[in-house]
Amino acid sequence: MLKRILFAHNGTPAAERALLYVEHLGRVEEAEVIVLHVYSVPEQYASATGYPALVASQEAVANELVTDAVDQLRQVGLNALGIAVAGTPARVILETARDQDVSLIILGARGPSSVKEVLLGDVSMEVLRYSRCPVLLVP
What we know:
Layout: E1 4-8, H1 13-29, E2 32-39, H2 51-75, E3 80-86, H3 89-99, E4 104-108, H4 115-119, H5 122-130, E5 135-138
């Protein structure tokens, strides 16, 4: 039923826990997994002399995060690919889900202090509100 799963990985402990669900569902459904990390480039520092190095550093960390997750998924036999891109997280997640025709989006949510707080994270809430496919939030 699930042909392609989009895992929006933000590097948090919740995302690391969500990776276990990605792995399980990917194996059960024999689905392809797309690991996506969206990072924000701080435009207010664009005129600083070290700005290109800052951007390169963020890009390198994003690529490493994606590569590590993809490698972990491939080690258990899943077909996985990674994407690291600068942008607005919710917008990029939704666009990628649409463009890649995914069946499910999996996100790590903020800590489980209360259901209201978990669901009202800016990125989670926007993805839940506008997604055209099911979304799994893992606290």
